[in-house]
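Supplementary Methods, section 5.1.

A reviewer requested that the exact input to the structure prediction be made available. We therefore reproduce it here, unchanged from the version used in the analyses.
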Amino acid sequence: MHPALALMILVAAFWDSWRWLVQRTWATPDEAITLAVMIVVVAGHAMRTARRSGAVSGWLHPLPMLPLAAALLLYAATVGRVPPILSAAIAVTTTLAAVHVAGHGRRPPFAFWGLCCLVLPIVPTLQFYLGYPMRVVSAALTVPLLRLNGLDIGLEGTALLWQGQRIQFDAPCSGVTMAWAGMLLVFAVATVRGESVGALLRTAFLGLRLLLVANVLRAASLFYLEAGLLPGNSEVMHQAIGLAAFGAAMAVLLWRMDAMRPRSEATP
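The structure derived from this sequence is encoded token-by-token as follows.
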């Protein structure tokens, strides 16, 4: 089937999910931007690959009918019967996979499927299930780090105790959003490079460890502001420290991804 016709059919068939995605992401535009960027990246990479291979455009590869029909049947069987985010996952994954196949003429790499899931509005769900456990872990690791600096810090649940003050680890301090953004970058790079399953798993595991360390360093730095030990306790400083910690972790991770990649697979 011609890709343009197939995409028109997919957009029409998945209309309920597109409408739900717009409503879900309306209050969280950062997630909507992430989905839009994902679509642009996949489409742009597919078209660039097609041009390099000598094709005039990225839309010359026909799409197989059987997988598309199977996806549509699965969607029809589940829509309205499962949580909307699962139906949206089928819609987004099928549509982006069609764009990838149209441009590359081959099935997407393994990392592509994880990337499709990560661009969905899953952060609130992750925060609900993982927020508290990650806050407990981050707080427990922050205490000994602060004690190394000579501070008599106590721990009660997810709160740091210091000189009668109770400094609470709130939801942003859990590191869920940082972990989601980091894995989004890992899967995006792995998708573009066509990394193997083993390489992707090694990179993801390393990324999660680096992000945990970055979040602990971030929390320890913010403690000095919250406790009044340093001036400049403001939302701007909180955001700047968070971005610096995240940027440092991702810089190390990208460097390691290049170092672990075989020279024969390097992109010229």
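Confidence is low (pLDDT under 50) at residues 55-59. These observations are discussed further in the main text.
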